[in-house]
Amino acid sequence: MTEDRTPPKLRVEGLEVGYGQHPVQRDVSFDVKTGSIFAIMGGSGCGKSTLLKALIGLLPPSKGTVCFGMENYWSADEARRAEIGRRFGVLFQGGALWSSMTASENVALPLQMFTDLDAASIDALVQMKLSLVGLDGGRTSMPADLSGGMRKRVGLARALSLEPEILFLDEPSAGLDPISSKGVDDLIVELRDGLGVTVLMVSHELPSLLAICDDGIFLDAEARTPIAHGAPRFLLDHSDHPTVRAFLTRERPAAPGQAKEDNDGSR
Amino acid sequence: MTAPVTGRGWRATVDGATTSLALTTDWTTHEIGIETDLVDRLLGRAGMRTIGFETSGLGRWDSALLVFLSDLRQVSVERNIHFDDTGLPVAARRLLALLPDRASPAAQPMARDGLFERVGLVVIAEGTELVAVVSLVGEAILRTGAALCGRSRMRGVDLIACMRDAGIGALPIVTVVNVLVGGILAFVGSVQLRRFGADIYIANLVGVAVIREMAALMTAIVMSGRTGAAYAAEIATMQGTEEIDALRAIGIPVHDYLILPRVSALTSMMPLLYLYGSAAGILGGFAVAVAMLDISPETFIAQTRGAVAGSQVLFGLTKSIAFGALIAIAACRIGMKAGRSSADVGHAATSAAVTGIVGVIVLDAVFAVCANALGI
Hints:
Number of domains of chain A: 2
Largest interface: A-B, 28 and 28 residues
Strand order of the largest sheet of chain B: 1-2-3-4-5
Number of helices of chain A: 10
Number of strands of chain B: 5
Order of helices and strands of chain B: EEEHEHEHHHHHHHHHH
Oligomer: heterodimer
CATH class of the largest domain in chain A: Alpha Beta
Mean pLDDT of chain B: 87
Largest sheet of chain A: 6 strands, mixed
Number of domains of chain B: 2
Structural class of chain B: alpha/beta
Shape of chain B: elongated
Shape of chain A: globular
Distance between the termini of chain B: 104 Å
Order of helices and strands of chain A: EEEHEEHEHHHEHEHEEHHH
Strand content of chain B: 5-15%
Number of helices of chain B: 12
Number of strands of chain A: 10
Helix content of chain A: 25-40%
Structural class of chain A: alpha/beta
Distance between the termini of chain A: 41 Å
Strand content of chain A: 15-25%
CATH topology of the largest domain in chain A: Rossmann fold
């Protein structure tokens, strides 16, 4: 394997995350290369979203380090953390739009808060970002009046508002119909190629994972630690871990007892 | 070929009907900002047919470039100018392909209604609201009847939880408010009565005022701010999170499940709180009278017993039941019709508290007029 010379956009080492005394995941280590689409995979309840919270600064990890560029995120002071955080774009699972603002206002708020652009420029940027995610109508709609897919698109436009270097997407295509889901996948690839952002996405949508991700880790709920590293497509072809195989091929994992019997050759 | 025109970050060279735009330096929101009138300057020349690009000098770029190119393309399309994007970076061309090449039609300004329409709409809205409130009251009465016969879907645990919250949970604040009001009445009253040497009647004043008016009224105001607002906020939040839709979809009657326990709990707890509040109010008056006005405890008790008649307690009890029902029904109705945003939850809570307090005072005035007419 050739060593990549450019430093990773994000490096996670020996991370342990959890609530109180109970670690949800431990010994999590991975690098996210600049310009890659990295997947955090795993079944429901394995701690994908908890891990994401530790990466975007919402939940301090109990052990380990998260480095953006060369900078250790969690050992920085609060002001510096906020500054680093402005380089992230985060799309939350349900969109997490501010419900008392219109779609446009949702995208405009970060720009109003953190740039000194005038109102006309902000407006032009907001229109462009919303068009970019395919939302030409409904700009003045309130979030409650938007469909789930549209809310996600507005959320994505908001995540893009401050020209992020790295995009964190929590289940970007979950709950969408296959065509919209494909649209979001294509959009993520376009944004990566066009804007050069690095994407880290949490997902258990197989088609998305296989289609667009070029690296990833697989978290396991029982082992409470990553059990596989690599692109989903690579893992599909090469991983022989039963859980990973079951996840990626959609087959039921062999029950432990049955596997034993098979090994014993008693069948 | 004419001499190039330059600006910050660009250089335009005109060659016949073709303009070639060379982009130079960095095109980021930080470096260059967004120039909104640039497009008109570039495309304003008559007889222009094609605009092309040359980007060998282009540094870093972000949305600022995309906004500019997108505007440029939209105006070019409008004016039948060929937008030749072959000179642009591949990434920019891909992103540009996602953007519409025609300006989306500006949103139609809402047609303003005339005075008649607006008055009509308000009347219709108020009429609808009145019907909704009346049907809610009707349903509350009918379903309470059904519940008493054991034929409702209300869950006992919900009722008990609501009763505990509206009953025992409210005791501390009801105590504080009523003791203080009783004490204040004794103080203010004594200043006036002392002039006539009628100090002893302070017990009558406190007893009658507390039992007839203050205990029921103050308790209702406290409960409106405390429990009414909580009911409205809770139900409004459930609207926002689609919990009420879920109840409806499963076929659980929202009225039985959500509204009935709250209305029953508050309506049944208010008279008890009233009795408790009356005792607290008289205790407050008693403390002030004995400690500061030189009236002996025996005298105070004897005077109070003489002044307060059973009919007055009954009057207070009736009022407190009406107040409880009013606060609970208004709060539930406001919660049910709230919108789905987080701001709507705040509006619902405020509106429930205010409606409850104003409603209770108006209803109290109605009671006073009726009592006067009936000679109670």
